[in-house]
UniProtKB/TrEMBL annotation:
Lineage top rank: taxon: Bacteria
Domain ATP-grasp: 105-174
GO MF: ATP binding; metal ion binding
Cross-referenced InterPro entries: ATP-grasp (IPR011761), ATP_grasp_subdomain_1 (IPR013815)
Name of the protein in question: ATP-grasp domain-containing protein
Length: 413
């Protein structure tokens, strides 16, 4: 083995500039890492979209992707890289198709998690296909929408089975809402879901073996959705929120994902947890932004330097065996799934490895956040995101929150 390895990380990006620049700046601050006498160096490049031969080599060892969930050419390139080149991918492209809410609901229901009761109803408008008339005449069974709704109970939510971005989501308070929403659903395939009357909306962002559970306020404007509050859940609910996010990710082979949970007392109800490649913009994460980007850097570096492999297999039977074990109650099952998830993420090894090899990285992150480069990045992001008359107001808002993060770090160290 040579005593020098250079690892290249590929970034597949959409419109964003803020977190990629932060990632590139922080990766430069990792410096060579010495493992058993071998020097490991890390660099990154932004990937471009171009024709590829299925036999082409891939230069990057790991890819962080924010594009493939909506753009299929790089999605298919990722699948080729995973199968042909052994490229390490944070999210398995093979379960991208399961990223519709529906499969994720089914899988976690199978594990006994507290998914609100959900019914899938047929399309309001027939699919545009010549075979439809025959199928409809022969097999399409009439159904009583009102009876389903009565059974679920008002109020409820109607939302697309593969939803995201609040498209087509409505709260249904009565029969009139029900028929109006269903008539408008047209060619979208809809779930009806029982309402959870929640105290807190917890949104957990997971990056590899790290998870941050945040107090999310979906009704606030984007810049104000994440509240900075550290003990907003009971210890039990907080533990479940972390565990459930990790379990979902380990189950599907995702390492960069967010999980939305509705929390009522100590009961945690996951409702949306197929958000791989989640938003990590400084203008939404603010206080949590330095944590998120340094976790992305650390996890990528750890995975490359330790030769971690991403697997295309899901090993669902290990989870189902726990689900089917009648001697285990809900809490015991959560603990058993969490143990599988932590094994999958090598959680203990990751933290030890970071302490040993990236000991001063956190201090470098703090210096960067306190310095001129981050300030420039923040100002540029604000300039491109908000109208001119709001620049100063938003600069003060985000600077205040990132400074709060800085002073909390100093207090901790
Ligand atoms: N079962 C439920 N009980 C209570 N509130 C719900 C339920 N389902 C959805 N909601 C509310 O509707 C919002 C949107 O739902 P959901 O997250 O499922 O859709 P989405 O399209 O993924 O939206 P987003 O992109 O904001 O996450 C949630 O933030 C929540 O406030
Ligand atoms: Mg959601």
């Amino acid at each position: 083995m040579s005593d020098r390895s250079r690892h290249l990380i590929g970034l597949l990006l959409g419109a964003e500039e803020d977190w990629p620049q932060a990632f590139e700046a922080l990766l430069q601050r990792v410096g060579p890492v010495n493992i058993d006498g071998a020097e490991h160096e890390f660099g990154s490049r932004r990937l471009t979209i171009e024709p590829f031969d299925l036999n082409d080599p891939v230069r990057v060892g790991l890819v962080i992707d924010r594009l493939a969930y909506w753009y299929y050419h790089p999605r298919e390139w990722l699948k080729k890289a995973a199968l042909m080149n052994g490229t390490y991918l944070l999210n398995s492209p093979f379960t991208f198709q399961s990223m519709e809410k529906h499969s994720a609901y089914c899988a976690m229901l199978r594990l006994g998690l507290k998914i609100p009761r959900t019914v899938l109803v047929p399309y309001k408008n027939p699919v545009d296909n010549v075979r439809w008339a025959y199928t409809s005449a022969k097999y399409n069974k009439g159904f009583d929408l009102d009876a389903i709704a009565e059974d679920l109970g008002y109020p409820m939510y109607m939302k697309p089975f593969d939803g995201g971005g609040w498209r087509g989501v409505s709260r249904i308070n009565n029969k009139v809402d029900l028929h109006q929403a269903y008539d408008q659903s047209g060619e979208m395939l809809m779930h009806l879901q029982a309402t959870v009357e929640y105290d807190k909306f917890a949104r957990a962002l997971s990056i590899g073996a790290e998870t941050m559970v945040m107090d999310f306020r979906p009704d606030e404007p984007m810049h104000n959705r994440y509240a900075v509050s550290h003990d907003f859940l009971s210890p039990s609910a907080g533990h479940q929120a972390i565990a459930i996010s990790r379990i979902v990710n380990a189950f599907f082979g995702w390492e960069f994902n967010s999980c939305e949970m509705l929390v009522k007392g100590d009961s945690v109800h996951p409702i949306d947890y197929a958000n791989a490649c989640p938003d990590v913009a400084v203008t939404s994460l603010h206080y949590y932004f330095p944590w998120a980007i340094s976790a992305l850097v650390k996890w990528s570096v750890f995975s490359l330097a330790t030769g971690r492999r991403s697997s295309v297999d899901l090993h669902t039977e290990r989870y189902f065996a726990i689900a089917d074990d009648e001697s285990l109650d809900y809490d015991a099952k959560i603990s058993a799934y969490l143990a599988l998830a932590d094994e999958h993420f090598e959680t203990a090894k990751y933290h030890e490895w970071c302490a040993e090899h990236l000991g001063d990285f956190d201090a470098r992150v703090r210096d960067w956040v306190a310095g001129p480069d981050f300030d420039r990045l923040l100002r540029e992001t604000i300039t491109t995101t908000y109208p001119e008359n709001e620049h100063e107001q938003f600069y003060a808002h985000f600077k205040g929150l990132t400074n709060l993060w800085l002073s909390d770090q100093t207090a901790d160290h």
